Amino acid sequence: MKLSFNQTLRQSSLEKDLQLCEKHGYDAIELRLNFIKDYLEEHSIDDLAAYFQSHNLKPLALNSLEFVTFCNEKEYSQIKENLTFLCEVGNKIGCDTIVVVPSFNVGDYTIEEIKNESVRVLNDLADYAEQANMRLAFEFVGHPDCCVNTFDQCDAIIKEVNRDSVGMVLDIFHFHSLGSNIEDLKNYDPNKIFVIHIDDADDFPRGYLKENIHRLFPGDGAIDLDLILQTLKEIGYDGAVSVELFRKEYYEWDVEEFIKVSKEKTARVVGKHYSIPVC
Question: For residue 265, what are the contacts with CB-CB under 8 A and spacing of at least 6?
Answer without folding.
Answer: 217, 218, 219, 220
